[in-house]
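Suppose a colleague, Dr. K., hands you the sequence of a protein chain of 469 amino acids and asks what its three-dimensional shape might be. Before reaching for any lab equipment, you can write down a predicted structure in token form. Begin with the sequence itself:
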Amino acid sequence: MTVATITFHRKRPQQIHPRETAGRYNRLRWAMVWLSQAIFYGACWLRWDDRQAVLFDIAGRKAYLFGLVLWPQDALLLAWTLVLAATALFFVTALAGRVFCGFACPQTVYTAIFRWIEARLEGDHLARTRLDAAPWGLPKLARRGGKWLLWALVAGWTGITFAGYFTPLQPLLADLAAGAPGPWAGAWIVGYALFTFVLAGFAREMVCLHMCPYARFQGVMFDADTLTIGYDRPRGEPRRPRGARQAGPAGDCVACNQCVQVCPTGIDIRDGLQYQCINCGLCADACDTVMTHVGAPTGLIRMMSAQPEGDAGIGYWREIGRRLRTPRALAYLAVMAAVSLAMAWQLATRVPLQLDVLRDRQSLAREAADGRIENSYTLRLLNMRETAREVAIEVRDLPGGVLIGPAVQAVEAGRVSTVSITVAAPASEHRQQPLRLQLRALDDSGDHAEAASVFFQRAERGAAKSWPD
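The predicted structure, expressed as tokens, is then:
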């Protein structure tokens, strides 16, 4: 009996070194790099009164967004935000393909930054390819070492900035200077820095091709009206180099392959729509440069749709306007408008005051000397504002019910105060009665909060019974 052995030989993928190009898409890409990084690196330094303007305080279970302070009770706002972000991504994808991937995705942004550093130290795409194939020696080690050092500095500062959104940045920097950042902050800084260093420096396009699921399910959101980077095949074919164009019919494509050389994922856009394409438009920039050089019209590679008018070169903004009128785009816009209105309504009606009532289970009901029945409660008063305030506690919906003890309580800014109170009411034949407590702020805000509970009576006057909930 013969046992067959199958051996799989997997060739290590060659590192892609895209050629640098210039053009409107490249300018837009770098504008997005500058904008996104200015927001990311700068927002955590902004101050609002005496605190950080943007901070997600996990330990304190609060989120600060300039003048807005969000608590766990505002979790619905987070859910609305996620729904809005997802719908916006679907809308942009249905409108113009994977433009988020090509211009705003963090993987694309940091890969562009790391590749720019690499090009400054190792040269253009041809020089980097030769350096990859060269044996290790002092020159190669010096270039690679310098590149890795700059990558590490960028990644390290990225990790510090990321951690600064979850712990106050200025105290964090002081702790880092003292060499004691704390285990959690240190772990997040190192982890996020390594994450950035590896994915942007080495994984690069492999993240888009194999790790990110967005490339796989984007086809669900594409239709015949979706704008994507495409090659005008009727105009460009058959391809012939400039020196061989007298040999037969020739399209505008001069087979220079610069569209392939500039592609960050290494595909040939002339082969049609591919899931690897991130709609960055660099191939269109390279092709426009070549077309201008040879005296042919630009737009051989451009944003287009599968509709007949989408192949006619009617113009980018006219394509966008036509796409906005499609049923899918209008449906996404309607969902985003509805979610935005829901968020606005929740913020407008949000009361920065909350009251929770807990019954005293040790003594549900007791009879006072004057014959009234007393119940004890524990109140949790939450002041969501950043200023201390006084609140009044009032008894509602209980006939003859009165509060025994101080009715006015002081609550510190952004804190929860726990108060024990006693409510007294005349004896009644009812086993239990509804009780509503109201918390009213003693300022000009008009804020008030309510909570419901029950008031227990004795079965017989003077009996020592208490009734369970």
